[in-house]
Amino acid sequence: MSGALFAYGTLVLPAVWEALTGRRALPRAARLADYARRPLRGALYPGIAPEAGAWTPGVLHPGIDAATWALLDAFEGPLYQRRRVQVTVEGGGRAAVWAYVVRPAERTRLAAGSWDPRAFAARHLPRYVAGCRAFRAGFRPGAAQRRRPSP
pTM score > 0.85 for this model? Predict the structure, then answer.
């Protein structure tokens, strides 16, 4: 399966994307209507969940192949489910893409407030990037994986 990912959290940062996937970041700005991005209790990264009237800024990462989807699915883990969503792409137009949405049973972990990728980068980026590189280096499709990095 190929396609595009709508990223709204740490994967909007080119350094994180490249460290995790080994692919050059070619993001395109987009936003997702009727979903809210919130911090996750006990985590440095956010989650999204449906919320009427909300919108979430992010980026599209195009051309994702099956091997990269397997890596991303393992990285995101059981907290999220990959779901097809419609986004508005910068410059106009809409696109059907994939996004990792917090599973309904896990939504109590979403906290009030907002999550800012710039604040995350200022405080945690170098260590998180190192953790993403280590995750990719240790990734084996179909094998139990370590959890995503958390500085």
Answer: yes
